[in-house]
Design brief:
- By secondary structure, this protein is mainly alpha-helical.
- Helices cover 68% and strands 0% of the residues.
- It has six helices and no strands.
- Helix 1 runs antiparallel to helix 2.
- The longest helix is centred in the middle third of the chain and has 33 residues.
- It is rod-shaped.
Length: 145
């Protein structure tokens, strides 16, 4: 608007200034920056989506890794120094008893009693009894010392 007003003034006042002011006008097919604004908004939205996805993905991973029943069971197995086969056996015993919280195996010894197990665990009764002794004897030693 200001440029067109100056152009009208310059045409009347100074005929030589008209070409200089006309050169400052945008070409007929050019946009005044609207497309650039749209592309910048789209780029900003894409960056926000990527950053937000990374943030919430990290939060989900942290929650799953540190604040679930499976993570507690894993941490207790690590603190007891159990190997992979022992962890798998304990997990199977927990599933056999349909425990929603498999960490209960570390606090309630009756779940590891060979008399309370299914027939499929009778062949591994000695191993389960050894695990029970190891878990609860270590707990007793830690609480005394």
């Amino acid at each position: 608007m200001i440029t067109s007003a100056l152009l009208e003034l310059s045409c009347c006042a100074v005929p030589l200034a008209a070409p200089l002011l006309a050169a400052r006008r945008l070409p007929a097919g050019a946009d005044s920056g609207g497309q650039l604004l749209i592309w910048l908004l789209l780029a900003g939205a894409a960056i926000a989506v990527v950053c937000g996805g990374g943030y919430f993905g990290h939060r989900w991973h942290h929650h799953y890794r540190h604040q679930t029943h499976a993570a507690l069971f894993q941490g207790l197995c690590d603190s007891q120094g159990l190997d992979r086969a022992s962890r798998r056996l304990l997990a199977q015993v927990g599933r056999c008893h349909r425990l929603g919280q498999p960490a209960r195996l570390f606090t309630e010894p009756q779940w590891l009693d060979p008399a309370n197990l299914d027939g499929r665990f009778q062949t591994r009764a000695e191993e389960i009894l050894a695990l029970r002794t190891r878990i609860f004897s270590l707990t007793a030693l830690k609480s005394n010392g």
